[in-house]
């Protein structure tokens, strides 16, 4: 029987920075290399604050493909009839307005993490997306990677019992004493600091393993306790620790999470401890390639250990793009894997951690407050 033609999703790329380049390159990888046959991606337009940068971006990341339009504004991409979905790769504090403009132009949106700088902005975007009837998702790419799907299957299949304790850390040394104070990782006006930039990943693993566990019945943490260490350079958090307790349902579990912009990555970066075993995830925790499962006997001795390795062509950002394409094709407005509820949980936890740590954005940064 002849195979149905793959669905083509036409993307408009907003901004020309580091992650927009990585995402674009992944879009251009043949999906068959990852055994995907039902969707394909077309980069239709790139928007930058400078048209020269948009041209350079296409030259550098898309082999100068003349079919890709280069625009000197984001607005022109939102208005382009040849664009179905917008990818937003601007700094955190621009996500809200960029996503809102795209949604109001009737486009589907995939917006980089953290999806907004607070939960009130996110609620406003979700309402706008619902009103316009468009798909909207935070680009929490880790959720769609094959290794993560397999970890979730093993975590919930029963042999390990229930999760009890999870430790996760993501650190990256940004050399903060030798970069400009206007760098997005240091500038409070761009949402600088560890929590908003790399905090989403340790939190993601807690959401996957604890919040999503069927015994938790989608119950929010009953306790959040945290502390921030601020850099005197700009006062953003150089390190943050935050602990979550899930005890509002049949699950009794805790997550101990941390992130730092002054340390190198910790490896392994995630350790999930279950009643009868442990899952150990190798760094980098945003796109791990390897994990181990240890099955424990009654005395706590390791009875069996399995190591799993995952390989694919590209950086791994294409899996989230495939999810967007499938949702758009099927008329779904949010993903079942990383839907609005989970982004809202993330942003409300970050609101609370910032409140406890005294992290206040400069006036005017938060476009919606609640
Ligand atoms: N999923 C992932 O693995 C990663 C996600 N990210 C997320 O992506 C976002 C961007 O990060 P990254 O790509 O590293 O950032 P970059 O600084 O490399 O790029 C940001 C781009 O945004 C545009 N921009 C618009 N307004 C501003 C402004 N006021 N200051 C600076 N740039 C601006 C610029 O593009 P132009 O001039 O063309 O308009 C710029 O190139 C962040 O929210 C971050 O959390 C980052 C890294 C990895
Ligand atoms: O999302 C991210 O993952 C990788 C980090 O290096 C980067 O700063 C962050 O934005």
TrEMBL record:
Residues 149-271 form the GFO/IDH/MocA-like oxidoreductase domain. Keywords: Oxidoreductase. Pfam families: GFO_IDH_MocA (PF01408), GFO_IDH_MocA_C3 (PF22725). Its EC number is 1.1.1.179. InterPro entries: Gfo/Idh/MocA-like_OxRdtase_N (IPR000683), Gfo/Idh/MocA_domain (IPR050984), GFO_IDH_MocA-like_dom (IPR055170), NAD(P)-bd_dom_sf (IPR036291). It comes from the Eukaryota. This is D-xylose 1-dehydrogenase (NADP(+), D-xylono-1,5-lactone-forming). Residues 9-137 form the Gfo/Idh/MocA-like oxidoreductase N-terminal domain. Belongs to the Gfo/Idh/MocA family. One of its GO terms (molecular function) is nucleotide binding. It catalyses: D-xylose + NADP(+) = D-xylono-1,5-lactone + NADPH + H(+). Signal peptide: none annotated. It comes from Hebeloma cylindrosporum. Gene3D superfamilies: Dihydrodipicolinate Reductase, domain 2 (3.30.360.10), NAD(P)-binding Rossmann-like Domain (3.40.50.720). It is an enzyme of class 1 (oxidoreductase).
């Amino acid at each position: 029987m002849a195979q149905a033609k793959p669905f083509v999703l036409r993307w408009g790329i907003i901004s020309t920075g580091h992650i927009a380049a990585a995402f674009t390159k992944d879009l251009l990888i043949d999906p068959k290399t990852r055994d995907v046959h039902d969707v394909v991606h077309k980069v239709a337009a790139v928007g930058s604050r400078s048209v020269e940068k948009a041209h350079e971006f296409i030259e550098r990341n898309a082999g100068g493909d003349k079919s890709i339009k280069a625009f000197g504004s984001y607005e022109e991409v939102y208005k382009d009839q040849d664009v179905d979905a917008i990818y937003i790769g601007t700094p955190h504090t621009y996500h809200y307005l960029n996503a809102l403009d795209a949604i109001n132009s009737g486009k589907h949106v995939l917006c980089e993490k953290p999806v907004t700088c607070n939960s009130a902005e996110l609620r406003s975007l979700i309402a706008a997306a619902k009103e316009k009837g468009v798909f909207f998702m935070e680009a929490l790419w880790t959720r769609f990677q094959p290794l993560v799907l397999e970890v979730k299957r093993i975590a919930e299949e029963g042999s390990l019992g229930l999760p009890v304790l999870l430790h996760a850390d993501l650190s990256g040394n940004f050399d903060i004493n030798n970069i400009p104070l206007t760098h997005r990782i240091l500038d409070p006006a761009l949402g600088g600091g560890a929590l908003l930039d790399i905090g989403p990943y340790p939190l993601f693993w807690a959401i996957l393993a604890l919040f999503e566990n069927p015994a938790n019945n989608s119950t929010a943490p009953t306790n959040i306790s945290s502390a921030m260490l601020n850099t005197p350079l700009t006062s953003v958090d150089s390190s943050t620790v935050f602990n979550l307790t899930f005890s509002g349902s049949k699950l009794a579990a805790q997550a101990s999470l941390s992130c730092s912009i002054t340390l190198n990555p910790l490896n392994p970066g995630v350790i999930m401890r279950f009643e009868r075993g442990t899952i150990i995830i190798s760094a980098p925790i945003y796109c791990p390639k390897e994990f181990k499962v240890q099955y424990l006997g009654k005395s706590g001795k390791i009875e069996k250990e399995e190591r799993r390795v995952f390989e694919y062509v590209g950086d791994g950002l294409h899996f989230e793009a495939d999810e967007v394409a499938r949702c758009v094709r099927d008329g779904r407005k949010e993903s079942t894997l990383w839907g609005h509820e989970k982004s809202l949980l993330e942003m409300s936890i970050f609101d609370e951690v910032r409140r406890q740590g005294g992290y206040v954005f400069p006036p005017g940064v938060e476009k919606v407050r609640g």
